[in-house]
């Protein structure tokens, strides 16, 4: 697939901080590209420069092989992290307002269908729930039937059910062949939706690739979880590979059989043992030594 | 381009019309003020007499005239006769004295004015000089007649400055402007729609209040309605543009409120809403000329009280158009979508 966006040596210097420090990457047509990192990693700054909302201190961005021109504005859709809508307008009127800014696009009926807005089209846009609101903002980003869709932390603050519903909508949009650029600090979201991701921290890219491949590349093992009170007699045997997460201890190992044998030899109860696969959260911790959502 | 402009215009109009409290306030406030003023001022004006004196080249202080030393009468000097006669006609002066030729002094009084009648009786009591009576007639203009354009203008000013200024600062602060900036909408289309929306609303409200108060109180209107409409539209446009200029970069409502107050208070007192600036320091009068509300009120009063037409108020119309262009150009050039 050809590249839809190419970012080269991008730098954004604010008065005292370098929010984005010389990063380069490409996004291919039709893929869902994830940008991960904790708050303050530089994701939003990077994505706003790509959207043409913020100017870069240096570096270039090419859209379909050319510097961004007026065409870009009418061919992309953007969902910001937080957007207020005009007061006293219904969802339908708000969509109509934005629809009129573009010469081409989807009809309001198609948008309602695509973003599951059927029952809230005539409601006051201020009087809807958080999940409904994110769906309206998604619909606004889709009014011009964009080639490229930016979603900046679209599910932050949503409850798990609303988040799963939103993911379903994004999958449908992907199925229509759109390129999606998604920033998030939910690793699960990136893992489920994204074809490729970059992980950012302090303005740098610290890892990039397919989510599964990244996990494969960095570690093969699994994580054993035990309550600390059960675990502490054997802690010296696992000194190099355990850490506390609240009441629990997480032991990262590659050889499950040996580890369980060791636990049993010490008479540790396995009644409350849990085994999980390693996630992008673990990867982030491994790469930076810090919790992602700290 | 027109489509985008019309869409923003329609959305803004809907927003305003559905905001019942704002709409109700905009209609109720000026009616209350006019009614209040009418109650206060009808019938019992303060017993101070105002006499204009024309003395040719000689300064007023150098004249030896017993009448000029009468207490409780404010004497002020005028430099020509004709405009001063018109003031007597409109009851803005109670009497005009012409002392240029000390041997043949003349005076003008409005036959329908009770104050003119009393002053005339005092003057006739003077023994040393025979004054020649020059009666004028004319419908007496009450203070409330003079005040109506001021009140309407002041209400327009507040609505123009705060209406458009606060809305844009709020849009910027909550990120709505940033969202609009991510669409093909141009700053000029957005600004033009905001100005037009405010202008339509303000003109509708002002016309409604004008008709309403005229039915209630019945005030003086002697000139051309076309000229009045023109000066009102240009005045409103210039003040909306001034509000936009203030709101072009600011993203704090408190700061914007401070700036708008900084503009509106001087205008309220220096533009002649409540009292005429005649007799104040010339420097103050020159400064006031740069305020759009001053130009609007000068134009509106010339039309309503002196019967002026479009041509007579051309200087005011041009001044307002000039201010509009400057405010809009600077406002659009410095317009910021984002809240830093």
Give me some keywords for this one:
heterodimer; A: 294 residues; alpha/beta; Rossmann fold; Alpha-Beta Plaits; 2 domains; 4-stranded antiparallel sheet; 11 helices; 33% helix; globular; B: 340 residues; 5-stranded mixed sheet; 12 helices
Q: Hey, roughly how much beta strand do the residues of chain B contain?
A: 5-15%
The helix/strand order of chain B is HHEEHEEHEHHHHHHHH
Question: CATH fold name of the largest domain in chain A, please?
Answer: Rossmann fold
Radius of gyration of chain B: 24 Å
Based on the structure, what is the oligomeric state of the protein chains?
Answer: heterodimer
Q: Radius of gyration of chain A in whole Å, from Cα?
A: 22 Å
Strand order of the largest sheet of chain B: 2-1-3-4-5
Q: Quick check: average pLDDT of chain B?
A: 84
The named CATH superfamily of the largest domain in chain A? P-loop containing nucleotide triphosphate hydrolases
Strand pairing plus helix content of chain B: what structural class? alpha/beta
- Which pair of protein chains has the largest interface, and what are the residue counts? A-B, 26 and 24 residues
């Amino acid at each position: 697939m050809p590249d839809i966006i190419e970012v080269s040596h991008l730098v954004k210097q604010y008065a005292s901080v370098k929010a984005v420090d010389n990063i380069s990457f490409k996004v291919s047509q039709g893929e869902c590209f994830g940008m991960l990192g904790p708050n303050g990693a530089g994701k939003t700054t990077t994505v706003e420069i790509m959207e043409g909302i913020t100017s870069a201190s240096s570096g270039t961005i090419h859209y379909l092989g050319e510097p961004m021109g007026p065409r870009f504005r009418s061919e992309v859709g953007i969902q910001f992290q937080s957007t207020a809508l005009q007061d006293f307008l219904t969802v339908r009127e708000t969509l109509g307002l934005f629809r009129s800014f573009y010469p081409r696009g989807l009809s309001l009926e198609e948008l309602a269908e695509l973003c599951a807005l059927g029952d809230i089209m005539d409601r006051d846009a201020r009087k809807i729930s958080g999940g409904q609101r994110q769906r309206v903002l998604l619909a606004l980003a889709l009014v011009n039937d964009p080639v490229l869709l930016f979603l900046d932390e679209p599910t932050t603050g949503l409850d798990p059910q609303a988040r799963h519903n939103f993911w379903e909508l994004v999958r449908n949009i992907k199925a229509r062949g759109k390129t999606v650029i998604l920033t998030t600090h939910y690793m699960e979201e990136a893992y489920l939706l994204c074809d490729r991701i970059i992980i950012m921290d302090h303005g740098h890219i610290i890892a990039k690739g397919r989510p599964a491949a990244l996990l494969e590349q960095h570690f093969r093992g699994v994580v054993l979880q035990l309550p600390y009170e059960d675990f502490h007699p054997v802690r010296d045997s696992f000194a190099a590979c355990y850490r506390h997460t609240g009441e629990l201890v997480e032991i990262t190992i590659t050889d499950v059989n040996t580890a369980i044998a060791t636990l049993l030899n010490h008479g540790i109860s396995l009644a409350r043992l849990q085994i999980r696969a390693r996630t992008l959260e673990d990867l982030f911790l491994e790469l930076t030594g810090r919790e992602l959502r700290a | 381009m027109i489509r985008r402009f019309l869409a923003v215009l329609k959305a803004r109009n809907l927003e305003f019309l559905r905001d019942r409290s704002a709409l109700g306030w905009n209609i109720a406030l000026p009616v209350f003020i006019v009614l209040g003023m009418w109650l206060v001022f009808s019938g019992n004006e303060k017993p101070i007499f105002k006499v204009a004196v024309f003395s040719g080249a000689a300064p007023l202080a150098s004249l030896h005239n017993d009448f000029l030393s009468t207490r409780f009468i404010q004497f002020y000097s005028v430099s020509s006769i004709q405009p001063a006669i018109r003031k007597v006609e409109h009851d803005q002066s109670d009497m005009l004295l012409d002392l240029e030729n000390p041997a043949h002094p003349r005076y003008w009084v409005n036959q329908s004015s009770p104050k003119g009648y009393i002053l005339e009786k005092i003057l006739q009591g003077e023994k040393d000089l025979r004054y020649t009576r020059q009666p004028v007639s004319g419908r007496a203009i009450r203070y409330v007649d003079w005040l109506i354009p001021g009140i309407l203008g002041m209400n327009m000013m507040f609505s123009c400055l705060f209406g458009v200024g606060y809305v844009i600062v709020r849009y910027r602060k909550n990120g709505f402007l940033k969202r609009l900036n991510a669409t093909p909408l141009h700053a000029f289309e957005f600004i033009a729609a905001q100005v037009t929306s405010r202008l339509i609303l303000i003109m509708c409200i002002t016309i409604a209040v004008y008709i309403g108060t005229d039915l209630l109180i019945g005030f003086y209107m002697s000139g051309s309605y076309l000229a009045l409409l023109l000066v009102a539209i240009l005045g409103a446009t210039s003040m909306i543009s001034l509000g936009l200029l203030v709101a072009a970069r600011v993203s704090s409502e408190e700061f914007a409120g401070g700036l708008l107050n900084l503009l509106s208070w001087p205008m309220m007192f220096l533009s002649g809403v409540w009292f005429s600036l005649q007799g104040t320091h010339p420097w103050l009068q020159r400064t006031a000329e740069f305020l759009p509300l001053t130009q609007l009120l000068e134009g509106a009063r010339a039309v309503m009280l002196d019967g002026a037409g479009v041509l007579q108020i051309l200087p005011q119309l041009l001044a307002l158009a000039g201010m509009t262009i400057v405010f809009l150009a600077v406002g659009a050039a410095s317009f910021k979508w984002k809240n830093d």
